Amino acid sequence: MDSDPDNISQIPPPLRRGERSDRMGKMSREKGKRFERELAKIFRNYGYKTARRTSQYCGQSGDASDVIGLPGIHVEAKHQERMQLYDWIDQAKHDSFGTDNKPVVFHKRNNHEILVSMQLDTFFDFYREWEAGNGLHKAEQENP
Prior knowledge:
- The chain is an alpha+beta fold.
- It has one domain (8-118): Trna Endonuclease, Chain: A, domain 1.
- Helices cover 42% and strands 15% of the residues.
- The protein has helices at residues 19-45, 85-96, 120-133, 136-142; strands spanning 52-53, 67-68, 73-79, 102-108, 115-118.
- Strands 3-4-5 form a 3-stranded mixed beta sheet.
């Protein structure tokens, strides 16, 4: 290739309108897919052997959850730097509407641990189940 700086053939063509955002959008989607696969692996490591990422486009999975395999849980997975937690919770609620699944958001930022967010009612549903399984509520009533 000619090293002449005036040679216009060496200058890359300008980005077309929206091209950068398309590339960034694809990178973001790929990051999301990696996070969904990571979550499925974590779920399997915790003993939920059927956990897997779903195909959410074109209605292929029949389930709008990002990862399936946790019975009763609608998993919304978000690996983003800018937190939009209420929007994510709204999405999980919308996508789980009409099912018995509890909407739960698994989220993280780069170089941070995974966090789990849910509505207060959902938390207490889980806590009461945990409490009942450990006999805590009964012991509390017996020893006020």
